[in-house]
């Protein structure tokens, strides 16, 4: 009986510690998580046949972007969002999101 109570106490303490260290601040990845779903592309007032599909995966730690047969994966690397694009021509460029100068802007640089 004593061992069960002790294990239970340890579990409660561990859960409490995890709860204390949970970061509730907005993540830069949130902008991409909000895109989840299928999007149509419009150009010159016309809707193109190609669609983009965004999915949140791996318990919210990545966002995938499917565009035709190409795939991009957005993920956090420290405090910055990185993107790896898996291109049809066989290369995998990696990009990092730079700090914003305005709320509507996304600045990206090649790694």
Structural summary, described in words:
The chain is an alpha+beta fold. It has one domain. The chain has helices at 2-21, 30-33; strands spanning 37-43, 46-57, 62-67, 70-77, 80-86, 94-98, 107-110. It has a seven-stranded antiparallel β-sheet with strand order 1-2-3-4-5-6-7, with no helix packed on it. It is globular. The protein starts with a helix and ends with a strand. Residues 1-21 have low confidence and may be disordered.
Number of domains: 1
What's the count of strands?
A: 7
Shape: globular
Low-confidence stretches: 1-21
Q: Helix/strand-derived class?
A: alpha+beta
Largest sheet: 7 strands, antiparallel
Question: What Rg, in angstroms, do the CA atoms define?
Answer: 20 Å
The proportion of residues forming helix, as a percent range, comes to: 10-25%
Mean pLDDT: 79
Helix count equals 2
Strand order of the largest sheet: 1-2-3-4-5-6-7
């Amino acid at each position: 009986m004593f061992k069960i109570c002790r294990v239970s106490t340890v579990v409660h303490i561990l859960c409490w510690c995890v709860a204390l260290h949970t970061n509730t601040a907005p993540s830069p990845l949130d902008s991409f998580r909000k895109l989840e779903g299928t999007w149509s592309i419009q150009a010159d007032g016309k809707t193109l046949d190609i669609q983009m599909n965004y999915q949140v995966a791996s318990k919210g730690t990545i966002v995938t972007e499917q565009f035709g047969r190409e795939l991009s994966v957005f993920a956090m690397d420290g405090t910055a969002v990185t993107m790896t694009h898996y291109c049809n021509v066989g290369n995998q460029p990696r990009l990092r999101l730079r700090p914003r100068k305005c709320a509507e802007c996304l600045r990206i640089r090649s790694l």
